[in-house]
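Supplementary Data S3. Sequence and structure tokens for construct A.
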Amino acid sequence: MKSKYDFTDTSLSLEERFSFLTSEVNGRAHILDHLMKNLSGYLEQLEAEVDGNPAAENYLDQCIKEIGKTVTVVSEVSKLQRVDQQEFELLNFINILEDVKERAESISDVNLSLELNGLEEALVQGNKDQLTAALMYLVSNLAVKGEVKLSIESKDLDGNSVSLSNTSLANRKYWFISFSDSSQPLDEYKPILHSRSNSIKNKFYHRDGTLCYGTISRHMGDIVSFDDESGAFSFAVLLPAVESGAVTGALDESLDEDAWRGDETVLVVDDEDMIWEILIENLQELGYTVILAEHGEDAVEIYGGNPGLIDVVILDMVMPKMNGREAFGELKKIDENVKVLLSSGYMAEGEAGDLLENGAKGFLRKPYKMIELAKMIRKILD
């Protein structure tokens, strides 16, 4: 299947070609990181073999150091690609799976049975066309011809529930989209690049596979596989889940509501209209004046146009036009002492570490409860 995201195709817009290139670079960075770590492991095994040969020991030591530097550079490249998510939007992944099933059956002899496990909605932050293209690649290149079950369910990942090794997945809720003719326990899967099948791994070293892997990685997910000595094989995609209610619940009446009240002005920067009403209603109930900005550019304009009048900014990290990271930098240029509370249902707190070190006052992962937000605002302002 020819990818829609061919950056050499001049019929596509500059944004579409750049999007393709970004995903491909991200995929190549992750694959190179995997290969360099493997090479480093092999060299460490050679240490015993060259013991007593000073020249060989010196060369081996230099190789290990250079590989370490390369891994660091590759990691930074990958990190840069993952934060460039301005074109992402809130999507119902069920619609994507239904589209993939229809397309796959129309162009191949793969018969996909779609198992939704009672789900009508499976929200993710992402780019619909990129995710569709990535799943079509997996179906057309990796699925066994014949009857294949495509299913989706939610999985909570933590150190006790999953044994996936060498993966960058965070401890959180994921959508687990499996391609298999039989179900396998999650803890028997491993990252695709660690598959026993070289024919499977090798597909991801070529351009289309690299794009697919880079797309899933750029969406903060991973492709995992299961295989055993009998030849049984299945694979799955893991993507971070976004809760239907990114902000949930009113203030708990059993708590002292007065403790969380304030009369300051709060600038809410978020492009998800489903949470505006909850935030505005609850914050106003607590006594705050609330100003809404739909994206980073609006936030910068509003903050700059109201010097000294906005007390705290609640800033979502993934938005169109100007993402949270960029908006934070612009706000700091306007006011070095700006008080910003970061929020995301997509990024982990660790990925915002540089912003926290540079003056951001806190981080809330969506979904969060209103009482958590109320407490955090008072902590920042008091």
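Construct B, processed identically:
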Amino acid sequence: MDFELSDIQKQIQQTFHEFVERRVIPRAQEIDEKKEFPHRLFHEVGELGFFGMRYPENVGGTGSDITSYCLAVTELARGSLSLAAACTMQSLMGTFFLYRFGDDEIKNKYFIEAIRGKLIGGICMTEPNAGSDLSGIISMVNVTENGFILNGQKTWVTSAPVTDFLTVFAKTDNHEQLSIFFVPTNLPGVLLGKTIEKLGVRGSLTSEVSFSDVHLPKNYLLGEIGGGTKSMLEILAEIRIMTAALSIGVATAAYNEALEYAKTRIQFGKPIGTYQAIRMKLADMSVQLETAKHYVLYAAWLSEKNLPRHKESMIAKLYASECANNICDQASRVFASYGFAMEYPVQRYFRDARFTLIGGGTSEILKINIGRELGL
């Protein structure tokens, strides 16, 4: 395995690094405080080609490899996890099923515009009583002669208040397994529910959505009746690797802030980083960050080579997200009282990092599944 990034991968990383330094970091605190969707930055990310990185050039994408995608994700998360969460939703779950199953109408009118950043998409899976247990989904689609009628309620829908279309997982009245449907949000019966106030990633808006007798034409079925779970498994490993990359980004931001502070904060006549307690704390943070970073890139490499990566993607997500939360916690301790002050970004990293523990499967679910992979 070659651990050296290619020239193209380095260029992509540098492009997003410079964009984050110039455009994202100066606005990150404002995005968090105002709790507003960062429309302008979202469109600028689209202009960089991020939303099309995973898709081939013949549909308007850039055909980038997964390592390049993860490098870009990490940089965006280093600047603002709110922005990165909204952008990764768009680039992966929000558009994949349109690309995979959409007809010419859906692709030309919605998918291509979405990967340009002109339209915003989301995904509806979680329900009030169905989170990790997708079999508990009760949203129902009745099959009619002319198409489908959708009813149900979804929650924790990322970007819901600003979406132009949604990908909805529901059961049909003629099949017990999940199916996937394309639902433009301007259709009658699509209703935006309450906005969920969150601890972190507050610029990535999250709301409930309900569907009341929403009529869908036949071509809005994405894939086959009952094929939803199988289709989701196609990108599940990539979702976990992407979430791990988000974790690396926010952890990197927290670590860099703590390291710089330890070098410049003077106590008892010298920088606090010269004291063993702080030095060891930063050393532990560095070890965790570098280990997580390399394993995430390893999981991305496996995915690129189309090698088995089910267990590896879970390990990457589990380890990177737990490390990110520990690193952000330790960074706030380096800042001591200032880590408790809202004017310093370390408090935002501490809050935002909690998001990474949820997306792609909770740590508890991942440990159970990893245990199964071990034959237990």
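The chain has a mean pLDDT of 97. The longest strand covers residues 147-158.
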